[in-house]
Amino acid sequence: MTGWAIAVHGGAGVDPNLPLHRQEEAKKLLTRCLYIGISALNTNLPAIDVVELVVRELETDPLFNSGRGSALTEKGTVEMEASIMEGTKRKYGAVSGVTTVKNPVSLARLVMEKSPHSYLAFSGAEDFAREQGVELADSDYFITQDNFDYRIPTPGLDSSCAAEVDNPMVMNGLPISLYAPETVGCVVVDKEGRCAAATSTGGLMNKRSGRIGDSPIIGAGTYACNLCGVSCTGEGEAILRATLAREVAAVMEYKGLRLQEAVDFVIKERLDEGKAGLIAVSSNGEVACGFNANGMFRGCATEDGFIEVGIWE
Amino acid sequence: MGWAIALHGGAGDIPVDLPPEKREPREAGLRHCLDVGILAFKNGRSHLAVVELVVRELENHPQFNAGRGSVLTTEGTVEMEASIMDGQTKKCGAVSGLKTVVNAVSLARLVMERTSHIYLAFEGAEAFAREQGVETADPSYFITLENIERLNQAKEANRVQIDYSQPISREVQVETHTASGDSQLGTVGCVAVDSDGNMALATSTGGLVNKMVGRIGDTPIIGAGTYANSYCAVSATGKGETIARGTMAGVVAVLMEFKGLPLKEAAAYVVEKAERGTVGLIAVSATGEIAMPFNTTGMFRACATEAAHSEIAIH
């Protein structure tokens, strides 16, 4: 038996000029989600249940780019994706192209537990959602004031904004002032030393319809095994190429690195020019995070009372 | 060091006594696709072009589970997926849920080269295909009688399973011997290394017989069914969910990099670790070695090296 540990994130790559009140809102949400996870862990809920619970909360809150408040595709629609993985047997579930499901992470869990497969997408995922009777909503629910006027650059506006922005920071090809940090995630190791991870997102802002990122891809955006649980965020294509989440585990297993060293190694050596971040827990109760992007919304806590929420370095 | 190439047409419980009418067309298909790859290298085509060309041929061959001849979803439709990766640059492309694209692997290459994304799926991928003007066909083009029969047998097996209330998962049922005596756990794939040590691979499939509509397997998942870097290029085949959970293709590379294992050992280790009867893979290394391990009864495969060694095998 070890102490539990938990980490949450709301995306890597943050506008350095993000207004203070938005920074405070983000930190409050991260704190609230941490406490939801902490209470659950204190009632001995298994890691897989805790990660789902916390990510549901992040999806339901419109602040971050997942569930309600997801970034919109080029068509102005929502195409959400999520994955969840448990470390003891490495079972996982994932969904992509989901448009009416309130909590994609829960649908991903149902794929894992109630279907013969591990990954369902688009109309097949939506049909499965109806069969399973999960909570649905139409587009009004998902499209908030924020993601209508903040997250989609309206035609002509992005070039003028780019001219005003005096820092040249770019994420995924967009000036950071317009970029919506992708993804939310949670990783947990419970008192039994079981790790789990879950990630959820609306995906890249203004993405081409049908584009799948790293969040639902096992080994890329999400991974859990008997050593650790990892959830990544940032430039999806860089994370995919690097199979980033899996690399943390690989480096622990085959290079014998401890969690934080493994996280640092992977961020430093595996991203090439890509910008990303990740949160991770190990089966012996450690928690770590790392990022090379400009900031990452994150929070972490361990059973001995340590708790920290942050955005910047 | 010369070039080397390996290709597969799927691993599974291929009966040792596979009747000639099933064995011969596939052996001929493997030989033909191998020749296409060999000729491409001889004509100076790049490692990436070679794997794409070979997989296109495998997709066009109706007796392998990719492109024409893809297995069917539970609704009797075809949903194809493919991926391609260049080990030199680690650029990659993947597609899923295709219904009308004649060569999924070529669309995956276009995603890699013509978009800033890696993975496009379903309607979005079909729309991209139209924009790019790739060859498309009516969905009926991809459907073969053999696969309609396989689907019927799988559904029958499920019905029997339910009648006898056996606690066997649907997937296991699908993999047991069908009346026609061959299994379709397949996928097709090709790995290649040129004489400079640059590697690439491509994988393509119709997926799992009787799969749910919208099901995505291991083939388009970078690191699972597909992976290439400066150590190796790997294409896996078999039970998709097993390959993905084990991130099999990625682990071969990890073992070579962090444990210094040579290709054959790394590949054998990964296959042995997986549940018996579920997986196989082909791989090449930067020094021109080839590995083709499998833990199923058989795997349709072929390989050749510039030094003129070549091999075609099933069991």
UniProtKB/TrEMBL annotation, chain A:
It catalyses: Cleavage of a beta-linked Asp residue from the N-terminus of a polypeptide. Keywords: Autocatalytic cleavage, Hydrolase, Protease. The record marks E182, T183 as: Cleavage. It holds the Pfam family Asparaginase_2. InterPro entries: Ntn_hydrolases_N, Peptidase_T2. Its EC number is 3.4.19.5. The active site is at T183 (nucleophile). SUPFAM superfamilies: N-terminal nucleophile aminohydrolases (Ntn hydrolases). Substrate binds at R211, I212, G213, D214, T233, G234, E235, G236. The keyword Protein biosynthesis does not apply. It comes from the Eukaryota. One of its GO terms (biological process) is proteolysis. One of its GO terms (molecular function) is beta-aspartyl-peptidase activity. It is an enzyme of class 3 (hydrolase). The keyword Protease applies. Heterotetramer of two alpha and two beta chains arranged as a dimer of alpha/beta heterodimers. This is beta-aspartyl-peptidase. It comes from Carnegiea gigantea. The lineage of its organism: Eukaryota, Viridiplantae, Streptophyta, Embryophyta, Tracheophyta.
UniProtKB/TrEMBL annotation, chain B:
It is an enzyme of class 3 (hydrolase). It catalyses: Cleavage of a beta-linked Asp residue from the N-terminus of a polypeptide. Keywords: Autocatalytic cleavage, Hydrolase, Protease. It comes from the Eukaryota. The keyword Transcription does not apply. GO terms for molecular function: asparaginase activity; beta-aspartyl-peptidase activity. Heterotetramer of two alpha and two beta chains arranged as a dimer of alpha/beta heterodimers. This is beta-aspartyl-peptidase. It comes from Carnegiea gigantea.
